[in-house]
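Work Package 3 (structural annotation) set out to generate three-dimensional models for the target panel prioritized at the project kickoff. During this period the team completed the workflow that converts sequence records into C-alpha cells, so that structures can be stored uniformly alongside our sequence database. As a representative example, we reproduce one entry of 172 residues exactly as it appears in the project archive.
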Amino acid sequence: MRNLILVGPMGAGKSTIGRLLAKELRLPFKDSDKEIELRTGANIPWIFDREGEAGFRDREQAVLTELCTYDGLVLATGGGAVMRGENRLALHAGGRVVYLHASVEQQVGRTARDRNRPLLRTADPAATLRALLEVRDPLYREIADVIIHTDERPPRMVVLDILERLQKLPPR
C-alpha cells in the first residue's frame, strides 16, 4: 500500500476517520483542505470569497497532485476533490481509495454548525448536499477500492471495518 486515501461528501467523517486510521497504522496524516490553508495562510471560505470555487479547485489540484506522490500516508480529501478528472487519476494512482459514504441527513447533522463550508452558505443546506451527492457519488464510486457506510457508526468501528476490508483486497 502506498497511501490510504479517503474520499466522500462533507460530514462523512474523512478527517476524523483519517486521524484514527493514521494512528492505528502508525502513518502520517494529511488533510488536503488543511494543507491548502497552511500553504496559503488563509482559510477555505476566504479563498472561495477571493478566488471563487475555480481558484480553490486549482489550489486543491496542486496539493492533491503532490500529496498523492508520497508513500505511506493517510490522506483525507475535500468533498469536491473528485470533480476534476486529473484529481481522480491522481487519487486512484496514489494508493487505496476508501469512499466514506454518508446519507444527506447524517451530513446535515454533522455540518450544521460548521462555518468553514462555503458551499453550504445557502437557505437550504440539505438540498445543496443532495444535489452535490447526486453529482459526486458516481465519481467517488469510480475511484473507490472500498465503500464504507458511516451513518450511525462510531468512528472506531468504521476504522476497524476499513482495515478488515483492505486486508481482503488483492494487490494492485
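The helical segments are 14-25, 32-40, 44-67, 85-94, 104-111, 125-143, 155-167.
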